[in-house]
Amino acid sequence: MKKTIQRVLAAVILFAMILSGGFSEVGKVHAEKQQGTTKRAIYVVFDNSGSMYGDGNKAWSQATYAMEVFAAMMNYESGDVMKVFPMHDITTDGNTGSATKSSMEIRGKDDIAQIHNMYTPKPGGTPYTQVNNAAGELTKLLNAGSVDEGWLVVLTDGDFDNDIPASGLKADLEGKAAANENLYVQYLAIGTDVENIPEGNADKGLYAQKAGNTSEVVNELAEISNRIFQEK
Q1: Measured distance CA(44)–CA(151) in Å, rounded
Q2: Neighbours of 223 (CB within 10 A)
Q3: Which of 63, 97, 115, 169 could pair covalently with 93 via S-S, beta carbons 3.0-4.6 A apart?
Q4: Is the dihedral of CA 64, 84, 73, 108 positive or negative?
């Protein structure tokens, strides 16, 4: 437990240092390797809609570095896997890339650079489609016994505007967590424009938080990281 907390604090302190610099420089997040035995999969749905890149909006940077912190804390040698599902197709070699992809897999520290180098040629709205896709793939991974625990993490700065579940956001996310007893859902609303934030229900594996500014993002990231990487 102590090692886990130290590891989270180290990552979050570096994350805070990067934030205090205004995201002006590229920084690599380093953290100790996860020492536990639980094999984890973290599937992140990344909101790369147009609003994330608006003037003065730091949400895209905050979400990017949050993903880098998660990626740096994974124990890839023990079978951990992280996959990012952007809402709109991306390139992973900056704005000079031509080949786009709908998701990217992080299987080692060398892959973390892909997260920072993500570029969205055609950002649009905030569709729910990738939440469904990520949850479906994560459920199959857990059902196959490839990992012990799975986390579906949703990072967004706005309300969904397409492919919205008829049952409502909270009910749908609870249903996704119920698809496997070791599947959990973490929803993080970034910024002040998100109105439809589902109420968390830990008993059903759903956690939901909101971070309105940079300091709140750091605080929420520490709590989320402790939740995900703490050995149960």
Answers
A1: 8
A2: 14
A3: 97
A4: negative
pLDDT tens track for 55-100:
777 888 899 989 999 999 999 999 999 999 999 999 988 777 678 9
Q: Are 136 and 145 in contact (CB under 8 A)?
A: no
Spatial contact of 22 and 63, defined as CB atoms under 8 Å apart:
no
Task: Report the C-alpha gap between 217 and 226 in whole angstroms.
Answer: 14
Q: What single-letter DSSP state applies at residue 88?
A: S
CA Rg value for the chain? 16
Q: Which residues, at least 6 apart from 140, have a Cβ–Cβ distance to it below 8 Å?
A: none
Strand pairing partners for 203? none
C-alpha to C-alpha distance for 37 and 211, rounded to whole angstroms: 31
